[in-house]
Amino acid sequence: MATEVETWSTSQQADGMFSLDDNLTEANRPYGNDEDELNEAEVNGNWTPQEKALHEARLKAKAKRRLRKSSSRNSTSESFSESGDLAGSDPNSPKGKVNTNDRKSRTGKGRGLPKKGGAGGKGVWGAAGMVYEDEEPDVQDPNYDESAQGDTVYATVVPEVDEKELGKMVNPIVKEYFEHGDTKEVQMLLKELNLGPHKYEFSSVAVSLSLEGKASHRELTSRLLSDLSVKLLTQNDMARAFDKMLKELPDLILDTPEAPQMLGQFIARAIADHVLPMSFLDCYKGKVDCEHARVALDRAAVLLSMKRAMVRLDNVWGVGGGLRPVKHLVKEMNLLLKEYLISGDVSEAGRCLRELEVPHFHHELVYEAVVMVLESKGDTASHMMIKLLQAFWKMGLITVDQMNRGFQRVYDDLPEINLDVPHAHSIMETFVDLCYQESVITKQLRDACPSRGRKRFVSEGDGGAIKN
């Protein structure tokens, strides 16, 4: 009987009927015959590129199937709770529906816990009681900015001034300083400029501009250099600036013939103000080939060798403009008018008046000129003064206000002048008429001239009775 069963099972296999174990084995090993053939071809080294690609694709597909089976088994075992219900299902909800407000996983995978430990969802900043620490920036992050790391410092960067543009930027500052004379404003403007290594050239520019200006401009420049030497410029910077000026003297003489003497005075004043070192002149002994530079250095040496030189050099440029005493200005204007009466040079008189730099005090010149006419003898002084006042009026040295003020002062002082000059009223009337004819004064000013009426007595024996 046993022999018949074995024969029957063997015959069934032979007839094409397979057992369940054989079917499972074949299912787990698809394409078994093809793989054997391919392996044999690989051993023999007869694989074609198409066969090789097919083999690799089959291996990848096989690996994916195994991964799916293992993941599905794990999820099925974990998706059920101990009671046999789904982890994310609501017992009160209809079958097959899941509560939409539940934060648990709906995919059936996982352990049935809320997403991200309860820290997920819209408007959620994290789990309760969780404290986030500062995270170091990732260098591999595409948005990583190396310059933005650490403490951020914002600063205004001013580009350095080019040497060619230095003159264009500094000239307006110096010219404006000549008008207001405020050294603090110049310091503030220079701090806003990034002069860099060319900052010493500011001193040379200021000195060269003052050489072409007035004595008061040179005095202001000396004060400016003294103030800047403490805060912005060092003695070495000043020495470089004056050294450059000494080398440029042949060019400066073309515009200012007295440049060597003036530069020598600048050097002496700078040494007295401790802007330049005391050994500045010693560095040039026997080393100067330029004749003009030698003149400047000799001038500075002579000024420094005088007695009480440090005190006297404070006024090396004189006292300019309104800083002079009134008596001194009156004396200067009297000398100017007397020299004009002798020489008759209108241009020289105009130059001397400009050098006084007191345009607000020109009414004193008009006053002194009219008084000289009243005290003079003859008509020569009268005609020369009319010519001078007319020239100053046309040149713009004396304005309408200054002219009117000067004549009005004479009108007010005429009674006192009449004590020394008995015929002052008649001379004044004649002079005023001539000035009006030459368009020196206005008609209104001419009519304002006081006139002394003539007193007629009845007779000598009437006791001084005045005839009506």
Topology:
Elements: H1 2-14, H2 20-28, H3 32-44, H4 49-78, H5 163-180, H6 183-192, H7 201-211, H8 215-231, H9 235-247, H10 249-255, H11 259-272, H12 291-305, H13 309-312, H14 326-343, H15 346-356, H16 362-375, H17 380-395, H18 400-420, H19 424-437, H20 443-447
Model description:
58% of the residues lie in helices and 0% in strands. The chain has 468 residues and is mostly helical. The radius of gyration is 55 Å and the shape is elongated. The N terminus is likely disordered.
Name the features.
0% strand, mainly alpha, elongated, disordered N terminus, 468 residues
In short:
The chain is mostly helical and 468 residues long. The chain has 20 helices and no strands.
Write down the overall geometry. Answer: elongated
Query: In angstroms, what separates the terminal alpha carbons?
Result: 193 Å
Task: Write down the oligomeric state.
Answer: single chain
* Helix content, binned percent: 55-70%
Kindly estimate the percentage of residues that lie in beta strands according to DSSP. under 5%
H and E string = HHHHHHHHHHHHHHHHHHHH
